[in-house]
Predict the 3D structure of the following.
Amino acid sequence: MSHDSDVPRTAEQVAAFMDGLSFEPAPTRQEEQALLDSLPPAGSSVMVVRSLRLPTELDEAVALAAKAAEVPKTTWIRQAIEMALAVQAEDDQPISRAEALRALTLLRPARHVA
């Protein structure tokens, strides 16, 4: 963290500060192209990083659930949020118990981890 005493206040101090700066050389065309090639394609979805505080017990439960589903914890959390949002969606239409059971019978059994 800088202090007020670190900030140049006069033209001479600014000049001395500017003279003390050093810059890296510009990337070569090959380095620039390699960097551009490493970027996601235009129109790709953007992932936003969020910080999330969880109680230890909940974090451990998420870790176990993610391991059982064979996905990273972040993927498991994202899918859980997507499911919660789908349940709350305004256009969500309830289905009959018979329709739900019919749909469930078509699913393959889940793998259980011992």
